[in-house]
């Protein structure tokens, strides 16, 4: 089995004190760092996604022009090059092999919408390295983790040899308990594994 780890959006604006801070976000960052310390050698790739929104636009309506609805419009967050877009300091990125930037001019919930420094998509990177299991961790369970996992499952049929998509449930943090649980159930119903 050739496995990869996808770390979704463990950024300052999504952890406590950030523009869209999630309770437990910094704890998830620290737990992911511990997981990497123990298991980095188990992964052929370690990929980390970040929202990297354009500073001079509403990013396809993602940034609210007035009061955000927190469903399709949001306060300004994770603007490219700002401290809020940087990784949470509790997350060690020393094992990360590919940094994926998403949401440049768009909503960009899923890491599969982003690109690496060389312009490669996440799907292209996984395919090129023959990844057959993708473990997903990060923030937020009920938004970008959900979207990334569901996209991975959708891409699974086109990404030979990818056969297994797992969400490591002790290494995620969600905005709210109910929607986070619903997101995990949706991922499982779509064929994902909760580990």
TrEMBL record:
Keywords on record: Hydrolase, Metal-binding, Pyridine nucleotide biosynthesis
Enzyme class name: hydrolase
Annotated ranges, domain Isochorismatase-like: 3-194
Gene3D superfamilies hit by this protein: Isochorismatase-like
Pathway stated in the Swiss-Prot or TrEMBL entry: Cofactor biosynthesis; nicotinate biosynthesis; nicotinate from nicotinamide: step 1/1
Enzyme Commission number(s) of this protein: 3.5.1.19
Pfam families from the UniProt entry: Isochorismatase (PF00857)
Protein origin, superkingdom: Bacteria
SUPFAM superfamilies in the record: Isochorismatase-like hydrolases
PANTHER family: LD05707P, PYRAZINAMIDASE/NICOTINAMIDASE
Family membership noted in the UniProt record: Belongs to the isochorismatase family.
The protein's name: nicotinamidase
